[in-house]
Known about the structure:
It contains 18 helices and twelve strands. Strands 5, 6, 7, 8, 9, 10, 11 and 12 form an eight-stranded mixed sheet that branches. A four-stranded antiparallel sheet has the order 2-3-1-4, with helices on one face. 43% of the residues are buried. By secondary structure, it is α/β, with parallel strands linked by helices. Helix 3 (50-60) crosses helix 4 (70-85) and helix 4 (70-85) packs antiparallel against helix 5 (91-105). Helix 14 links the parallel strand 6 and strand 7 (301-305). The chain has helices at 6-20, 33-48, 50-60, 70-85, 91-105, 108-123, 136-144, 148-158, 160-170, 187-196, 217-221, 239-244, 261-269, 283-296, 336-340, 343-361, 383-392, 421-424, and strands at 176-180, 201-203, 210-213, 230-232, 251-255, 275-280, 301-305, 316-322, 364-374, 396-398, 417-418, 430-436. It folds into four domains: 6-127, N-utilizing Substance Protein B Homolog, Chain A; 136-170, no CATH class; 176-232, Sun protein, domain 3 (Alpha-Beta Plaits, 2-Layer Sandwich), CATH 3.30.70.1170; 235-436, Vaccinia Virus protein VP39 (Rossmann fold), CATH 3.40.50.150.
Amino acid sequence: METQSARYTSILILNSFEHTHTLDQKPLNKLEKQDRQQAQEYVQGILRRKSYLDFLISKYSSVDIDEMKPEFKNILRLGIYDLIFMDGTPEYAAINEAVEISKKTMSGKTGDLTNAILRKIQRDLDNLPKPDFEDRTKLIATTFSHPEWMVERWVKRFGEREAFQLMQANNRRPEYYLRVNGLKTNSDNFTLRMEKTGVEFEESDWLPGYFKVKSINTARSKGWFEKGLCQVQDIAGGFAPAILDPQPGESVYDLCAAPGTKTIILAEMMKNEGSILAVDISSERISSIANNVTSYGADNVKIRRADANEERFKLADAVLLDAPCTGTGVLSKRADLRWRRTSEDLKEFAEKQAELLDSAANMVKKGGRLVYSTCSLEPEENMEQIEKFLQTYDNFELVDLENYLPEEVLSEDRKHYQTFPHIHNCDGHFGVLLHRKI
C-alpha cells in the first residue's frame, strides 16, 4: 500500500479532526489532483454520515465502540463508507485497503478485526439494520448524522418531515456553481469553453453568469481558476453583492472579506472604478485575498488586516458585512461544521455579529448602504439580529429587495432573503439591505 494514498490521507485528516476539532487540509497537498479529490470525498462523506457509520460499527463489532481508539474508528468508518456509498469501489478493494491501513498504522490484530467487521457488513449489504433507538431525537440524529441539539432545534422549528428533508439535502454530495469573472471573460465565451471541454452545466436564471456544474475538476485541471476566468461561488453567495449593488466610482468596504470571492464580484460590478477596501482580521487569510485579487484582475481593491471592531474607518458609500456564523446553511459542503458547532456557539456568534454590525453601521455615509449576510439558517443570527439592530439604529431602514432578487428567495415582505438547501437546491444564505437615512 502506498503510504500517501487517498484513503490513507483521509484517515490522517479524520484522525487530526478527532483530536483538534479542526479540519487540517495540509496532507492533501502531498497527493496528485485525482487522489486529492478522492480524499476530500472520503473526508466530507464520512463526516456527513458519521453517526450512521458509528451505529453500524456498534452493531457489527464485538468491541464496544466507546472503547475503540479514534484511529481505529476512522479506519472502520472509511471501510464502511467505501462499501456503502462509493459506487465505483469494488467491495474487495474497500475491505482490503482498510485492512492494510489497520495493519500498517496499528497492528496485525487490528487488521484482522477490521477484516472480520467489514466482511460481516459486506454479507448484510442488502439488509443492513436501521437505527432503532426509543429516544426520538437520538433516532433521528443517528439516521441523518446530525448532532442532537441541531435535530431538536430543526424539528421544533420546521416539523419532522421538513427537518428530514433539510438533513437529507445536507447529506447529498454537493453540486457547485462556477461564476464567470467578467473582468477577464464573458458568459458567452465561457459557455463555449465549457462546451468544448465537455463540462455539463446549467445556467442559473437567478443571477447572470452563474453555472451549476456536477464537478469543478475540469475547471481546476484546465487552470481556469489560476487564469481568473471563473470562481467557485454558490448562487446564494452571490446575493449579498447583488443587493449591495455597488456602482463605478463609489467607495466600498468588504468586511470579513477572506478569501475575497465577494470582493472580486464587487470589483466586477464597479468595472474596476472607485475603491474597495477588503478587510479581514486574520493575517493568514489576508494572503488568500491578495492572491485572488491578483489572479482575477480586481485592480481597484486595497487590502487591510484589521479588527473591524477596533480600528477607525472613513465613511463609505456602501459596506458589505458577510458575518462569521455557525454555517448551518452549508453543511453539505462543510460537513465538519455539524460536529464542530454547539448550541453555545450560536449564542457566541450572535454576540460577535451584533458587535460587527454595530461597527459596520458606523462606517456608512448618510444615504449609504449596508448589507448584512450570513450562511446560517438560524433566526438568532439572521432576522432576530436585524430586528435588534433596528431597535437601536433608527437612522437605518430595510430596503425592499424585489428589484434585486427572484421572488422565491424573498420573505413575504420582501425585506430579506433566505435560502434553504432542501427548498432552493443551493446553500442556505440570509441577507438584508439597510439604507442609512439622510
